[in-house]
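re: the backbone from monday

yeah here it is again, tokenized this time
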């Protein structure tokens, strides 16, 4: 865990970020904290390794039904966590989506599917909707879907951060 909130609110979000997107997740966490949402940022060194480890533990448990169950690193790390989870990376969404089965709450996956043409890294991240604003929006929206925040809170966040609801879907390219 890279950043842990000091907020005492019941609303909880977890941002799982890989590589350079950790900086974006930390900025998103600040935005969420300003809204009173307790947020932890988890640095993910490899979504693939987490996946392999979880599969390996499942296999071992299946083949050793009388032994103490093994827990994956991901399972052990998240077993006492609640709230919504948002994964973000500079890679395709399928990379982090593979972990869905082992995430103990609503799980939103952000990534760079497709091809983008942008002048700057920030524009590219906005294009793929993995910038800090989109990360925070994803957590806020997931909380609203769970009834912990209002839909109006989501609308206000979209307006405040000048996010276009009618923006082209980068996955449609």
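seq for it, each position gets an aa:
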């Amino acid at each position: 865990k890279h950043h842990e909130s000091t907020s005492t609110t019941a609303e909880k979000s977890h941002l799982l970020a890989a590589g350079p997107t950790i900086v974006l997740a930390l900025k998103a966490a600040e935005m969420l904290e300003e809204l009173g949402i307790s947020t932890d940022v988890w640095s993910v060194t490899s979504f693939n390794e987490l996946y392999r480890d979880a599969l390996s533990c499942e296999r071992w448990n299946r083949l050793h039904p009388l032994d103490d169950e093994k827990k994956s690193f991901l399972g052990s790390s998240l077993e006492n966590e609640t709230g919504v989870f948002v994964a973000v990376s500079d890679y395709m969404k399928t990379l982090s989506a593979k972990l869905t089965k082992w995430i103990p709450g609503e799980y939103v996956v952000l990534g760079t599917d497709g091809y983008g043409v942008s002048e700057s890294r920030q524009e590219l991240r906005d294009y793929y909707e993995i910038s800090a604003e989109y990360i925070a929006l994803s957590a806020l929206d997931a909380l609203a879907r769970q009834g912990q925040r209002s839909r109006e809170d989501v609308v206000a966040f979209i307006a405040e951060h000048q996010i276009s609801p009618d923006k082209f879907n980068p996955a449609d390219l």
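The radius of gyration is 17 Å. The helical segments are 21-34, 47-63, 73-78, 93-97, 121-128, 132-145, 151-160.
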